[in-house]
Amino acid sequence: MKISNSARWPLAVLFCALTAMSYAQWSNPADDVPAYHASAPLKVSALPPILHGAQLSGEHFQYPWQVHVYQDVARVSSVVYQLPCNCRCDRALGHTSLRSCFEGLHGTECSTCAQEGFYAYQKTKLGWTPAQIRAGIARHEYEQIDLEAQ
Description:
Elements: H1 5-26, H2 64-75, H3 77-80, H4 89-92, H5 106-109, H6 111-125, H7 130-138
Helix pairs in contact: 2-6
């Protein structure tokens, strides 16, 4: 049986809709982890720099915690490269890990990114591995960080 060109378009739409529904049926939102890198970068120097020095001033840096989190994240750059960001900036901004949030101004305006940045620094100083920190982020432990106290 031959299908006319005018009949193919509705069939294609129906096929796409059924495919999307099947993915939705079998996908688990709990397994939807934001973007991160599974291992440390080969060369940190090859990555875009985290804002630093004189870049940590001006209208976007009105609170002490904003400067402090950028400084702390820079100290553990290869760790935050291996961490997801729960604000989902991977979807909205194309970020590839928590580190991306601090290569620009996003870390100054997003409390999730800032809390995760401080959390990553604190746990790294306690000897936690990136995998352990990721697990803590998945449990939302970073939400206990008080930005004003940093």
